[in-house]
Amino acid sequence: MRVIPRLDIKGPNLIKGIQFDGHRVLGTAEEFAETYYREGADELIYQDAVASLYRRNSLLDIVQKTAAKIFIPLTVAGGIRSIDDIRSLLRAGADKIAINTAATENPKLLYEAARIFGSQCIVSSIEAFRKDDGRYQVWVDYGREVTKLDAIEWAKQVEDLGVGEILLTAIRNEGMGKGFDLELTERISSMVSIPVIACGGAGTVDDFVSVVEDGKADAVAAASVFHYNYARPKQERKTMQFNEQRLRMGEHVDAGNIDFLNFGYGGERAITVTPAPISCAKTRMRDSGVSVRI
Questions:
Q1: Cα–Cα distance between 241 and 288 in angstroms, integer?
Q2: Residue 108: inside a domain
Q3: Strand 165-170 relative to strand 196-199: parallel, antiparallel, unpaired?
Q4: What pairing do the DSSP bridges indicate for beta strands 145-150 and 165-170?
Q5: Which of 8, 42, 159, 181 is catalytic?
Q6: Structural domain containing residue 273
Q7: What is the domain count for the chain?
Q8: Residues 6 or more apart from 90 whose CB is under 8 A from it?
Q9: CB-based contacts of 41: which residues, under 8 Å, 6+ apart?
Q10: 127 is known as an active-site residue
Q11: Is 280 contained in some domain?
Q12: Res 92 pLDDT > 90
């Protein structure tokens, strides 16, 4: 069972919000990626948060720098619209490419990509919004635009098109810390034969166990529960802000406005999750009988 930190990126910065909105900068994506690699992450997901809006992915430079320092699979998502986009990111060091918006507009892109690069390399990213009547609707552009696609039916279609796995994000759960959408995950996992990565909603390490046992997920991805553990100030080591002055004064990088963890916006009480290290999540899963790489 894979445990995968998801890093949403705007420019060079790692950001985190709730339901794809209200983002706070927590530090630089590269710094967190290296930390997660050292701490035992099985894979990483890089999501360009504004790429689909501007119809381009801006992560080539960050992907190249990351690939030189980490040696676990890296999935890149956001703004990928063509075979050439995929080829460029793979050459930069990405191992897998996740596609959402462009695939809903041109499903043949998934088929062509899987044929050229192999199914193991192509991931269907599905952002699913649960409507009040219980139906799940596919949203695109990082949760900004609504489509007419039913998420359950779309999941089956992308499997038929040849993708190797599905990155499934429950929008209403994302960043809320109330747990994964177990119904959505179970329905899609039970219907398709390819792996499903559950994403959106992890609030405690117990949620990782639930989405595997009850949601039948093949892998789990999380952001807040990991980000806030590694971002918050600790006396025994430097925080992500140790190079803040250099970054703020000399580069177009925000080193991480993490003072809110102690002060503004209600301080740490305002965080919707119980922060935990990757090792804690894996230990909880192993103790519950879930096979993980320690």
A1: 36
A2: yes
A3: parallel
A4: unpaired
A5: 8
A6: 2-287
A7: 1
A8: 97, 117, 121
A9: 3, 4, 5, 72, 278
A10: yes
A11: yes
A12: yes
- Reported pTM: 0.88
Cβ(255)–Cβ(27) below 8 Å = yes
Task: Return d(Cα 230, Cα 224) in angstroms, integer.
Answer: 10
Distance CA 256, CA 262 (A): 13
The pLDDT tens digits of the residues spanning 199-252 come to 999 999 999 999 999 999 999 999 999 998 887 655 444 444 444 434 443 444
How many residues appear in the chain? Answer: 294
Q: 37: closest CA among 74, 89, 1?
A: 74
Q: Could you tell me the sign of the dihedral formed by the alpha carbons of 216, 217, 220, 223, in that order?
A: negative
Residue 267, in any domain of the structure:
yes
114-157 tens-digit pLDDT: 999 999 999 999 999 999 999 999 999 877 789 999 999 999 99
The single residue of 30, 48, 85, 127 carrying the catalytic annotation is 127
CATH number reported for the structural domain that contains residue 178 in this entry: 3.20.20.70
Q: Which two tokens stand for residue 238?
A: 């430097």
244 is catalytic: no
CA geometry: angle at 201 spanning 240 and 121, to 5°?
80
Point out which residues pair with 165 in neighbouring strands.
123
In a domain, 294, yes or no: no
Radius of gyration for the chain, computed over Cα atoms and rounded to the nearest angstrom = 18
